[in-house]
């Protein structure tokens, strides 16, 4: 008879680890390719934004829905994909996520009207869960000594995708048909699906029996996010004081309150708010919002500055293609620092890596204030910024996963990804407001002033400092600092799964976080059962 899983009895999920024939390298490579694909999808239409009104014979405001649709669908479906990954297997949900990526690319490629293009971009956004699902799968498939570096590499794939996607999309848009962009991404999505099927092994979700999906929680979270992100992303067009913006903002707050009430009373919530409220998770998510803000600010400011005409006295006069190629090294920097960040996380802990990332981002923005006169010097400053982003992005999933049960890994990582998305949305609104308020008229065109770009850089620097300060408050301890657990053989015979109902459901039980969720839980629980 097989021995009982005492780890499950104590609320700790079994760690399957890699099988004897599994090689970590190919697994990491395939999951990183999925992350690159997701990042390419995000930057795919950037070179087309100016041409979309002409292509579809519409206004610039209507054409912006091509970007907004992806943002909204990704925000709504990423937490759902993460939770389903915990329930039904991360590999299965990775494969499912490639379906809308492929279908959306095909729909966009054949689009002849704007609504069809928006629908295709919305489908593409539904596949963005591949990144948090891939990071969460690493915990199931890799040995602990490879986990830190692997997480950093998968996180850095976002930078690689951005670095490759922008010049690729710019070249296609400038010298070929825009439809080619979407046919290529459709092929890449199919390739990723095949590689996941062939290379990434399946790991049975822990504690799968008897667990159910929270449909009401999914709908409530989705509705709140749509209202919130619409208000943030469209507030500048509609007016921040307009009835639509204020009404959506009020609706978002009301729905979030009702959603939180439901989640706290549900036995298997969509998002485990009690686990999310633990200081390590809560503060890491807060830092994620701020880091997402800082990261996206540079992506909004620098391309505009590079493409402004030199006649302004501060613009660098580069074409879209030149700008994309110049920005490539900054994106690749994330990949270069990933192994360094992974080793630092392994030796010193993810808190140190996240703090260092915030400091480096702030330093990069500070340098940019003095390096805006030439394209190559500005790229140098952006390499520093993206190096810090690479450190931070690799550390945040490690902090999250060390604080939640393995049965909640994908949901927790997806929620963390959502926090970063909210940060980027707020960044777009703030930087957009700065650029639209601080303007000058040149040659009949209204353009942002040099002070507007400097103000944006200063905001990015200040926000990065805030991220570093938040990190200092995260109560993280390295695993070897935790007290050793009492040997299992000393457990009282009376201990059984039935004596600890929260063990099977983790921290989502209605009674709230129990001592079994902490690193020292085996000791405390055995004392209580002896």
Automatic annotation (TrEMBL):
<feature type="domain" description="Major facilitator superfamily (MFS) profile">
    <location>
        <begin position="27"/>
        <end position="479"/>
    </location>
</feature>
<feature type="region of interest" description="Disordered">
    <location>
        <begin position="1"/>
        <end position="23"/>
    </location>
</feature>
<feature type="transmembrane region" description="Helical">
    <location>
        <begin position="282"/>
        <end position="303"/>
    </location>
</feature>
<feature type="region of interest" description="Disordered">
    <location>
        <begin position="481"/>
        <end position="530"/>
    </location>
</feature>
<keyword id="KW-0046">Antibiotic resistance</keyword>
<dbReference type="Pfam" id="PF07690">
    <property type="entry name" value="MFS_1"/>
</dbReference>
<keyword id="KW-0472">Membrane</keyword>
<keyword id="KW-0812">Transmembrane</keyword>
<feature type="transmembrane region" description="Helical">
    <location>
        <begin position="62"/>
        <end position="81"/>
    </location>
</feature>
<feature type="transmembrane region" description="Helical">
    <location>
        <begin position="452"/>
        <end position="474"/>
    </location>
</feature>
<protein>
    <submittedName>
        <fullName>MFS transporter</fullName>
    </submittedName>
</protein>
<feature type="transmembrane region" description="Helical">
    <location>
        <begin position="93"/>
        <end position="112"/>
    </location>
</feature>
<feature type="transmembrane region" description="Helical">
    <location>
        <begin position="150"/>
        <end position="169"/>
    </location>
</feature>
<keyword id="KW-0813">Transport</keyword>
<feature type="transmembrane region" description="Helical">
    <location>
        <begin position="27"/>
        <end position="50"/>
    </location>
</feature>
<feature type="transmembrane region" description="Helical">
    <location>
        <begin position="421"/>
        <end position="440"/>
    </location>
</feature>
<dbReference type="InterPro" id="IPR036259">
    <property type="entry name" value="MFS_trans_sf"/>
</dbReference>
<feature type="transmembrane region" description="Helical">
    <location>
        <begin position="378"/>
        <end position="400"/>
    </location>
</feature>
<feature type="transmembrane region" description="Helical">
    <location>
        <begin position="181"/>
        <end position="200"/>
    </location>
</feature>
<keyword id="KW-1133">Transmembrane helix</keyword>
<dbReference type="InterPro" id="IPR020846">
    <property type="entry name" value="MFS_dom"/>
</dbReference>
<feature type="compositionally biased region" description="Basic and acidic residues">
    <location>
        <begin position="1"/>
        <end position="13"/>
    </location>
</feature>
<feature type="transmembrane region" description="Helical">
    <location>
        <begin position="212"/>
        <end position="232"/>
    </location>
</feature>
<feature type="transmembrane region" description="Helical">
    <location>
        <begin position="238"/>
        <end position="262"/>
    </location>
</feature>
<feature type="compositionally biased region" description="Low complexity">
    <location>
        <begin position="484"/>
        <end position="522"/>
    </location>
</feature>
<feature type="transmembrane region" description="Helical">
    <location>
        <begin position="352"/>
        <end position="372"/>
    </location>
</feature>
<dbReference type="InterPro" id="IPR011701">
    <property type="entry name" value="MFS"/>
</dbReference>
<feature type="transmembrane region" description="Helical">
    <location>
        <begin position="323"/>
        <end position="340"/>
    </location>
</feature>
